[in-house]
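Chain and backbone:
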Amino acid sequence: GPGAGRGSSSMRAAEGDKEEAAPPPPRPAALLRWDEVPEDFVECFILSGYRRLHCSAQECLASVLQPTNETLNFWTHFIPLLLFLSRFGRLLLLRGAGDVPFNHPALLPLWCYASGVLLTFAMSCTAHLFSCLSPRLRATFFYLDYASISYYGFASTVAYSYYLLPGLSLLDAGAMSRYVQQRLGWQLDCSLPIAAYRVLVLPVALALAVGCTAACCRSRAACCAYPFAVRTFVFAMPLSMACPIMLESLLFDLRARNPTLFVYFYRRYFWLLVAAFFNVSKIPERIQPGLFDIVGHSHQLFHIFTFLSIYDQVHYVEDGLAEFLKAPLAAPTYLGTVGYMLLLTVCLAVVVRRFLNVADLC
């Protein structure tokens, strides 16, 4: 009858809907323990939460919302990446640094510095997110991660050399000569060593960046006994390029003359010391292995404190830029800023390529 016809039609329609319905999404892959993954993938004192090797890119992307031991490693640098994108966008594109256009030569060091900060966070996120694609890609991503940290360190030196160092009494030949005469009673012309420092600071920083990257890539070798300590020490070396600011606070009254630089500079180094402590000690997971596999392990804390250190650094670099725009002492050039960054990029690419071509680093 008519009712039966309507019923059969409804059933056919329902069957058609079932055929057209999308298949259910694949279930997330089960997480593994430390003894179920290759030795190179095992992190000290982290017992569980590992993703399987040879995940697809789609699975890697989906894992940012799953409780793996890499999830918060990703988010603790992805959120800062978005924050710094917003901040540098305001400074460089929305004239937040003063009434100067984005292509003004005075902003060249800031462009270099911004590229270093953003690249560091972006590369860290990429390395932690896609490290389980394959062993070779894992090595590639972490080599690039080390290279990006060196790139950032050099970019910081570029910003310092234009926005911060020229205003220091330590690098003023007249002020230093008077200081030496008053404290030591010596008649000493400090113009030559100061001029030499100004000429050599960027080439030396570039050489340090390349050397540090090579050392950190080498630390991934199986024969390296303390890789985290080596990397922490190596990446502390470029911080020596900021020694003039430390000496300024010891020899001259930096706290009174530039309180913003004094407070944020030393607070940044406090955050860096805390970050280094967690990175080397592997606390808290060393104390209770397995308890902090997903939330609270040392690498996550290391990420948080490095973010805080860079946040403070951005603050005093921005303040230095504001002072520089009032009375620029030396106009930045493309060769002295972007040119150096491009040269460093080529050098770092050569280092990374060399280590990828070496099968056994021991």
Q: What stands out?
A: The mean pLDDT is 87. DSSP finds 13 helices and no strands in the chain.
